[in-house]
């Protein structure tokens, strides 16, 4: 297996707030890798660092051996052609309908005709379970339910046929049925498109149901990395408490 | 004493950081605007969104500022038996100063706050990050069209406001001071030289550019949460008004010796 992303000795801070210190992580091609950890610890920051949306102070982030921090505008554009991201709230563009949202990256990166883009949009919407329904296709995000918005965002991220998809809390705010559906979709996309998936989530059924490997963020690093089964049944107190949702009074002290 | 000096130092530091950040964004926007595709459609879309939709407000401001100023000058000149000079007196004040400034303070502030609210909401909902993650340049897609549109729209609205201010002034001159509208028009136009129009338009263009960049910068600087959008929008009103008044003084200093 070859590594798609390698994060080495990474240091990232927002002012005095240190997020990562000497952090190391490696994501291999074709796997579904899930990041878990407490709220506000910087899990989403990790995804934004990988795709070059945030700068880092020290260390290395390598995408297929190429340093993300040294990339120029064109190289970043190329990186984002291969790596796409599904944002927590979907981040669909309010002023565009579903079709325009889904085909946004195609307009940026390809010279596809309108007809080709329509076909691709249908294909993607079908893949995420929204099907080809003109009513949905030309609806604006405000007219979609939370689950539909997430799936439309997912369709937007796969339209350009990326190699890696970054999911930032894909099931937040969804009911259990819709969460399960998103989880199934992540597995389906990996199976059918052979993409590498990096998922940030608090949703344990998603983390252990879809992942090949799971990493837990703790004390500005990823000290606990293992197969989904190893992490689920870990005897390490920090991991066990987090996974089982055990609340310890002295944790907040 | 130390605390006062520290707070002054912090305010100066914050002000410089704000002005510096905005200058960097302005340069980035202009450079990105020069790259192909030029985004002409986006600019026209924004001119319609910002300019055309501001016409009702610009109409009201133009007519009423013309009427109010003519009335004030008329009252003052009547005391000297010189009410016929009301057109000459009003012309310079309206074209050089009041119409561009009042337009910028009202229409410009409306445009800037609209930009901040829209871009701030996009920032909070991660839509700006989404644009970047899809391989597009948010500065090129969001800031350049708005900046260019505001820079074009405000002078156009200023020309429109000047015509209406002249009309409003003529109405008051005729109905309140018995100065015929035709005579008011002739004395009004006779008083003006090309440089007066140019100085008004340069002011309006500069104000348009400032409102555009302040509106966008504040939107992009929005922190997290819906409350942050409100804070950014309020800051935009203050920043736009103060910057326009200061810039008006600077431009007046530059143009007065010329005029």
Describe what you observe in this structure.
The complex is a heterodimer of chains A (253) and B (259). By secondary structure, chain A is α/β, with parallel strands linked by helices. The longest helix of chain A has 18 residues, at 176-193. Chain A has a domain at 3-92 and 141-221: P-loop containing nucleotide triphosphate hydrolases (Rossmann fold). The model of chain A has no long low-confidence stretch (mean pLDDT 89). The N and C termini of chain A lie far apart (42 Å). Chain A has helices at residues 43-50, 73-82, 98-102, 104-109, 114-127, 134-137, 146-158, 176-193, 204-210, 228-232, 237-244, and strands at 3-14, 17-28, 32-37, 58-63, 66-67, 83-86, 164-168, 196-200, 213-218, 221-227. Chain B is mostly helical and 259 residues long. Chain B has one domain. Chain B has helices at residues 2-34, 40-51, 55-78, 86-124, 127-133, 138-177, 181-190, 194-220, 226-258. The model of chain B has no long low-confidence stretch (mean pLDDT 91). The A-B interface holds A 48, 51, 53, 73, 77, 80-81, 84-85, 87-89, 91-94, 104-105, 108-109, 156, 160 and B 121-122, 125-127, 129-137.
- Global morphology of chain B: elongated
- By CATH reckoning, the class of the domain at 3-92 and 141-221 in chain A would read Alpha Beta
What string, H for helix and E for strand, traces the elements of chain A in order?
EEEHEEHEHHHHHEHEHEEHH
Order of helices and strands of chain B: HHHHHHHHH
What is the overall silhouette of chain A?
A: globular
- Note the main sheet of chain B: none
Regions with little confidence, pLDDT below 50 for 5+ residues of chain B: none
Between the first and last Cα atoms of chain A, what is the distance in angstroms?
Answer: 42 Å
Segments of chain A where pLDDT lies below 50 for 5+ residues? Answer: none
- Fraction of helical residues of chain A: 25-40%
Domain module count of chain B: 1
Q: What share of the residues of chain A does DSSP label as strand, in percent?
A: 25-35%
Largest interface between protein chains, with number of residues from each side: A-B, 22 and 14 residues
Percentage beta strand of chain B: under 5%
Assign the CATH superfamily of the domain at 3-92 and 141-221 in chain A: P-loop containing nucleotide triphosphate hydrolases
- Report strand order across the widest sheet of chain A: 6-7-8-3-9-10
Mean pLDDT of chain A: 89
The major beta sheet of chain A can be summarized as: 6 strands, mixed
Number of strands of chain A: 10
**Quaternary status:** heterodimer
Distance between the termini of chain B: 46 Å
């Amino acid at each position: 297996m070859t590594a798609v992303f390698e994060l080495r000795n990474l240091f990232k801070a927002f002012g005095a707030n240190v997020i990562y210190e000497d952090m190391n992580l490696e994501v291999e091609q074709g796997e579904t890798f899930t990041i878990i950890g407490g709220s506000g610890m910087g899990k989403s920051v990790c995804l934004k660092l990988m795709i070059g949306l945030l700068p880092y102070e020290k260390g290395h982030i390598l995408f297929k051996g190429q340093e993300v921090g040294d990339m120029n505008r064109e190289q970043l554009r190329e990186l984002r052609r291969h790596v796409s991201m599904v944002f927590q709230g979907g981040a669909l563009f309010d002023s565009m309908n579903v079709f325009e949202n889904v085909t946004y990256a195609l307009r940026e990166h390809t010279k596809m005709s309108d007809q080709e883009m329509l076909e691709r949009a249908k294909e993607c919407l079908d893949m995420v379970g929204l099907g080809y329904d003109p009513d949905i296709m030309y609806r604006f995000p405000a007219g979609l339910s939370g689950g539909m918005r997430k799936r439309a965002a997912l369709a937007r991220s796969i339209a350009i046929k990326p190699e890696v998809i970054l999911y930032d809390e894909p099931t937040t705010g969804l009911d259990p049925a819709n969460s399960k559906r998103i989880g199934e979709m992540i597995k389906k996309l990996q199976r059918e498109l052979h993409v590498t998936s990096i998922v940030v989530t608090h949703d344990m059924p998603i983390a252990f149901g879809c992942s090949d490997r799971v990493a837990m963020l703790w004390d500005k690093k990823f000290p606990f990395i293992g197969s989904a089964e190893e992490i689920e049944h870990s005897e390490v107190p920090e991991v066990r408490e987090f996974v089982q949702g055990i609340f310890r009074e002295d944790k907040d002290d | 004493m130390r605390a006062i000096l520290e707070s002054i130092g912090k305010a100066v530091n914050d002000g410089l950081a704000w002005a510096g950040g905005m200058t960097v964004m302005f340069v980035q926007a202009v450079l990105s605007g020069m790259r192909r595709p030029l985004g002409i459609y986006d600019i026209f879309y924004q001119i319609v969104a910002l300019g055309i939709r501001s016409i009702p407000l610009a109409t009201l401001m133009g007519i009423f500022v013309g009427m109010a100023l003519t009335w004030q000058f008329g009252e003052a000149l009547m005391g000297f038996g010189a009410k016929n000079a009301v057109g000459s007196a009003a012309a310079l004040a309206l074209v050089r100063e009041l119409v561009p400034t009042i337009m910028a303070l009202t229409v410009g502030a409306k445009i800037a706050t609209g930009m901040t609210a829209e871009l701030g909401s996009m920032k909070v909902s991660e839509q700006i990050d989404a644009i970047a993650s899809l391989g597009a340049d948010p500065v090129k897609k969001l800031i350049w069209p708005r900046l260019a549109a505001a820079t074009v729209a405000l002078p156009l609205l200023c020309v429109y406001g000047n015509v209406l201010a002249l009309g409003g002034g003529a109405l008051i001159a005729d109905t309140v001071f018995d100065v015929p509208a035709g005579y008011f028009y002739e004395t009004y136009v006779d008083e003006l030289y090309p440089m007066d129009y140019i100085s008004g338009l340069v002011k309006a263009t500069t104000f348009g550019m400032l409102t555009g960049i302040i509106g966008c910068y504040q939107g992009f600087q929005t922190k997290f949460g819906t409350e942050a959008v409100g804070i950014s929008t309020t800051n935009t009103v203050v920043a736009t008004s103060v910057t326009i008044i200061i810039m008006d003084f600077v431009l007046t200093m530059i143009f007065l010796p010329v005029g």
